[in-house]
Amino acid sequence: MTQHLTVVDHPLVQHKLTLMRDKGTSTAGFRRLLREISQLLAYEVTRELPLTTQNIETPLQEMEAPVLAGKKLALISILRAGNGLLDGVLELIPSARVGFVGLYRDEETLEPVQYYFKVPESLEDRLVIAVDPMLATGNSSVAAIDLLKNAGATNIRFLCLLAAPEGVARMKEAHPDVPIVTAAVDKQLNEKGYIVPGLGDAGDRMFGTQ
Ligand code: URA
What we know:
Layout: E1 5-7, H1 11-21, H2 27-45, E2 51-57, E3 62-68, E4 74-79, H3 82-92, E5 97-105, E6 112-118, E7 127-131, E8 134-135, H4 139-150, E9 155-159, E10 162-163, H5 165-174, E11 180-182, E12 184-185, E13 188-189, E14 195-196, H6 202-207
Parallel strand pairs: 1-11, 4-5, 4-7, 7-9, 8-10, 9-11, 10-12
Antiparallel strand pairs: 2-3, 5-6, 13-14
Helix pairs in contact: 1-2, 2-3
The chain binds uracil (URA).
Catalytic activity: UMP + diphosphate = 5-phospho-alpha-D-ribose 1-diphosphate + uracil
Protein name: Uracil phosphoribosyltransferase
InterPro entries: PRTase-like, PRTase_dom, Upp_B, UPRT, UPRTase/APRTase
């Protein structure tokens, strides 16, 4: 991917995102929509994966047919909200390896604090797709990408549902080599670090917590 930021403006993505933003959407509805939208976003984030060919036999004849090249890609969920995106992406790429980065946001400083890190081996040989629905301040995304690079990853993409301009700028400054794919870039962050107009706390909405 050459572009730093890709906004997926597909009508189905935009329609589903609007339903997710609506505060009247139930937890079950929100979860279902996130699963659906994550598959559409996964389609976009994997658009330029390298292909090779494999010799197969169709019922009619032999052919050299395209298949994904290289090692299985790694999906990294940034906990906890990342899991909502992860599930849908995994349905589309079931053979992917999966890792988890646990970061929580200190409510005072808005700085990320690490509490868990477990990723697949040989990250250096894989395309790594980090997933987190909300790119807000960018602090936790930048910290997660720092950890993945320290673990060897060199080819990373970042998949989110919604981004704030502040988060996009922060990522571009810290990790200009990491393309971002999102469904929308909203207006701004509020004083509490929430994306406005946004959709609220993605983790709370998908897990039914407050
Ligand atoms: N995380 C969320 O879940 N929502 C926001 O608006 C910002 C960060």
